[in-house]
């Protein structure tokens, strides 16, 4: 505690703002536990950036911790591009302080003689990714904490290709940051280096989104959509994209249309959570809509609900929407003739169906670690191959490569195209999904997330992962585990033969167990939230669409039994 107190007192010097000093002094005198949590470590700049609770302290998001990261990034850019006129673009979302923190970041860049394009108002993350290449920038930054609670904010860094930073840039930037103290940060702005941007980039992004997401689907006049931005940034883009693509029956949830960092109408602004779409689902039932679309605050994730076989609105999971959107893109490319160099992409914790889908169409499915930065890296690493689309189970999808991150704007349009086309042909989005299960096998996934906050929570998560390694799962629902993939050691072990093979991916704290019947369980601590996540996949053959309900129920029961035996129910 003495070290923590000593570190905290360094924030009482005249370098820090009076309000910050007052806040720290209050904690020293009145709240030692909170003081400990704020100073027991530095807010880490991870391999994609920073995300955490806002407030004063080294383990919080504030102008000083973000300033230090920006100074380190500035030093790195000057080192990598000596003599060049450096340019960066900055966007921010609806969260509290995002605008002022974005301004601080811009000022630090400018103090380091780096040209800054700063969006004049909140914008989506996919537009930021697009803007990096559109404006010919060396890097980009977006201030967002995605779908985290209101007290969070974050800082994501993008490289020249428009994708989030990956090796070797990530570690090298972290090295530059770690060599600094907060007192090394240049906070004095040079306004001649800061330029506000908005409409010109907006127009280019929306045009590109419509071009990449529209397939001239019939039936648009008869396809009814309920859209909610969940108080986030997508209100700046999705309504216009849908209008330009020809959709006229779009109902916006007005109570959630105004950007608001408190997210007052939801428990969590996360479209993965059914509760977040309650108002939209209610409206869809009132007006008989065909589809509900909701996006997270920075508009990289989207949740889709459609009418099931009973005519009720049902929220699909990320694996389901990813599968159907990828199949649709493959069908469209197939009409024009495959060139033989196409690939789709997914992640190690997403549905194995993506690989079965690719095999059927004769294209490659590249599988990466969790996170779209790895999918964006594939596009850079394989310039002679053509990326069609891909996604991950956490409600993210990317259409083509004009944006190099999850893109809920273009993906929303694509989902509407699929739904409208299906309805015009006498089918539905849901029925088309069932047809996929008939054609490629019925895989069903489930995610279980356990939240473990604070110092003790981090230790609990670490211990849980250690326990799974030292006492591995032997079977799941009576099916013997035959393969253990440990991405922390980059090894895949065949338990039947004892053969160990190398996993050709960067190291990551993920364990995956696969059983003889294809059941799969993955354990992974979240990289952005105080959570440990468990991903389950079960499968069965679906001979015909008419058997869907029966097989679906059987897979649900199988998942329930597995969760019960692992004490995760």
Automatic annotation (TrEMBL):
<feature type="domain" description="Alpha-D-phosphohexomutase alpha/beta/alpha">
    <location>
        <begin position="206"/>
        <end position="305"/>
    </location>
</feature>
<keyword id="KW-0460">Magnesium</keyword>
<dbReference type="InterPro" id="IPR016055">
    <property type="entry name" value="A-D-PHexomutase_a/b/a-I/II/III"/>
</dbReference>
<keyword id="KW-0479">Metal-binding</keyword>
<dbReference type="Pfam" id="PF02879">
    <property type="entry name" value="PGM_PMM_II"/>
</dbReference>
<dbReference type="InterPro" id="IPR005841">
    <property type="entry name" value="Alpha-D-phosphohexomutase_SF"/>
</dbReference>
<dbReference type="InterPro" id="IPR005845">
    <property type="entry name" value="A-D-PHexomutase_a/b/a-II"/>
</dbReference>
<dbReference type="InterPro" id="IPR005844">
    <property type="entry name" value="A-D-PHexomutase_a/b/a-I"/>
</dbReference>
<dbReference type="InterPro" id="IPR016066">
    <property type="entry name" value="A-D-PHexomutase_CS"/>
</dbReference>
<feature type="domain" description="Alpha-D-phosphohexomutase alpha/beta/alpha">
    <location>
        <begin position="43"/>
        <end position="179"/>
    </location>
</feature>
<dbReference type="Pfam" id="PF02880">
    <property type="entry name" value="PGM_PMM_III"/>
</dbReference>
<keyword id="KW-0597">Phosphoprotein</keyword>
<dbReference type="GO" id="GO:0000287">
    <property type="term" value="F:magnesium ion binding"/>
</dbReference>
<dbReference type="InterPro" id="IPR036900">
    <property type="entry name" value="A-D-PHexomutase_C_sf"/>
</dbReference>
<dbReference type="GO" id="GO:0008973">
    <property type="term" value="F:phosphopentomutase activity"/>
</dbReference>
<feature type="domain" description="Alpha-D-phosphohexomutase alpha/beta/alpha">
    <location>
        <begin position="317"/>
        <end position="435"/>
    </location>
</feature>
<keyword id="KW-0413">Isomerase</keyword>
<dbReference type="Pfam" id="PF02878">
    <property type="entry name" value="PGM_PMM_I"/>
</dbReference>
<dbReference type="GO" id="GO:0005975">
    <property type="term" value="P:carbohydrate metabolic process"/>
</dbReference>
<protein>
    <submittedName>
        <fullName>Phospho-sugar mutase</fullName>
    </submittedName>
</protein>
<dbReference type="GO" id="GO:0006166">
    <property type="term" value="P:purine ribonucleoside salvage"/>
</dbReference>
<dbReference type="InterPro" id="IPR005846">
    <property type="entry name" value="A-D-PHexomutase_a/b/a-III"/>
</dbReference>
<comment type="similarity">
    <text>Belongs to the phosphohexose mutase family.</text>
</comment>
């Amino acid at each position: 505690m003495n070290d923590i107190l000593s570190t905290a007192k360094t924030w009482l010097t005249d370098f820090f703002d009076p309000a910050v000093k007052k806040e720290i002094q209050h904690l020293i005198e009145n709240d030692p536990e909170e003081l400990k949590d704020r100073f027991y470590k530095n807010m880490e700049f991870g391999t994609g950036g920073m995300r955490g609770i806002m407030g004063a302290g080294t383990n919080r998001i504030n102008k000083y911790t973000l300033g230090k990261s920006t100074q380190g990034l500035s030093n790195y850019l000057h080192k990598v591009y000596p003599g060049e006129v450096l340019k960066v673009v900055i966007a921010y979302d609806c969260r509290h302080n995002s605008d002022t923190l974005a301004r601080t970041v811009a000022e630090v860049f400018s103090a380091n003689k780096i040209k800054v394009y700063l969006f004049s108002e909140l914008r989506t993350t996919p537009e930021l990714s697009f803007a990096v290449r559109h404006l010919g920038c060396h890097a980009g930054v977006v201030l967002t904490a995605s779908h985290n609670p209101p007290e969070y904010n974050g800082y994501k860094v993008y490289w020249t290709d428009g994708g989030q930073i990956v090796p070797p840039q990530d570690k090298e930037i972290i090295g530059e940051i770690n060599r600094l103290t907060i007192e090394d940060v240049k906070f004095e702005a040079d306004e001649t280096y800061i330029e506000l941007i908005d409409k010109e980039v907006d127009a280019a992004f929306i045009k590109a989104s419509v071009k990449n997401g529209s397939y001239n689907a019939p039936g648009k006049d008869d396809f009814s959509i309920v859209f909610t931005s969940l108080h986030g940034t997508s209100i700046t883009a999705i309504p216009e994209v849908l209008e330009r693509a020809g959709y006229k029956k779009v109902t916006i949830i007005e109570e959630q249309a105004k950007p608001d960092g408190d997210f007052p109408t939801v428990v969590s602004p996360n479209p993965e959570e059914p509760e977040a779409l309650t108002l939209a689902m209610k409206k869809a039932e009132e007006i008989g809509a065909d589809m509900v679309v909701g996006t997270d605050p920075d508009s990289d994730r989207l949740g889709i609900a459609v009418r099931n076989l009973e005519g009720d609105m049902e929220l699909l999971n990320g694996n389901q929407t990813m599968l159907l959107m990828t199949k649709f893109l493959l069908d469209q490319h197939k009409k024009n003739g495959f060139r033989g160099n196409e690939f789709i992409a997914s992640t190690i914790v997403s549905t194995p169906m993506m690989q079965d889908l690719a095999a059927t169409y004769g294209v490659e499915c590249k599988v990466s670690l969790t996170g779209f930065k790895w999918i964006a890296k594939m596009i850079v690493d394989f310039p002679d191959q053509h990326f069609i689309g891909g996604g991950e189970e956490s409600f993210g999808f990317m259409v083509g490569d004009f944006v190099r991150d999850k893109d809920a704007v273009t993906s929303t349009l694509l989902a509407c195209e699929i739904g409208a086309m299906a309805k015009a042909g006498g089918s539905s989005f849901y029925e088309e999904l069932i047809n996929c299960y008939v054609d490629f096998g019925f895989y069903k996934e489930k995610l279980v997330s356990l939240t473990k906050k604070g110092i003790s929570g981090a230790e609990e998560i670490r211990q849980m992962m250690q326990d799974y390694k030292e006492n591995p799962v032997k079977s799941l629902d009576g099916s013997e585990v035959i393969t253990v993939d440990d991405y922390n050691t980059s090894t895949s072990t065949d338990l039947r033969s004892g053969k160990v093979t190398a996993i050709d991916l960067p190291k990551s704290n993920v364990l995956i167990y696969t059983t003889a019947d294809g059941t799969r369980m993955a354990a992974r601590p979240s990289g952005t939230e105080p959570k440990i996540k468990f991903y389950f996949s079960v499968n069965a053959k679906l001979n015909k669409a008419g058997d869907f309900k029966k097989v679906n129920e059987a897979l649900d029961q199988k998942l329930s039994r597995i969760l019960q035996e692992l004490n995760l129910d």
